[in-house]
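Operator note (shift B, R.M.): manual run for 2-C-methyl-D-erythritol 4-phosphate cytidylyltransferase requested after the automated queue skipped it. Running by hand, logging everything below so the morning shift can see what happened. Input copied straight from the record, untouched. If output looks odd, do not overwrite the archive copy; leave it for review.
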Amino acid sequence: MATSAKYYGLVPAAGQGKRFGADAPKQYADLGGLTVLERSVNALLADDRVHKVFVVCAPDDTRCASLFESVPKVKVLPLGGRERVNTVLNALQYLLENMWVFETDWVLVHDAARPGLTRHLLARLIDQASEHVAGGLLALPVADTLKKASVSEEGDTSSQTTVSRTNMWCAQTPQMFRAQALSLALAECLYQGAEVTDEASAIETMGISPLLVMGGLENMKITQAQDLEYVRCLLNLQPLDGEAN
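Run finished. Output pasted below as returned.
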């Protein structure tokens, strides 16, 4: 057993990014000379407390390993599953069984397509979540008015009612939990057939309340093709629509 807990990054990168609408998965899109995935991983490595980052790709992925073959603090695991929850659980079980990580080590699960994580946000999460028994995640309070929609038989989407935004937050990543606790929570959710939208949702099913740590707009997730341009602008890599900053 480890004498003191360490911090490890875990980046699930086995998704196909169907909503992104490109030939290649969004994590391999170019972002200022590096792939989105490389920038997301580098963001985790910006804090010296992160001992190592594990990138989990699909078993048939031929590109991922080559991106990090010269980065000693990154290990690629071709253990991707059908869904994100399967990918993260596969990796955690492998790492625990092979003692790459220990039960009480902290694992920071970070989206492969969230390259705008700053050193400041990462440090804030580690500092605050380390002091919380359940761990925590970066998140932002909802600022916009929330609408519950209805869809007609013709496919039109209409506003049905307004939902209170009081105490509502938008989850970001990294999400930081003890390795064993997260592994058990994910496994139980899969066994019960519970929906797992993020790692925190699995922890919550155990009756545990993770700490919400203030995130940032720059830490947005790339989902659709236009999001890539927004992130380029936020990171000052390329002006949006060719306009000067």
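Quick read of the result: The chain is about 30% helix and 25% strand. Residues 84-97 form the longest helix (14 residues).
Leaving this for review. - R.M.
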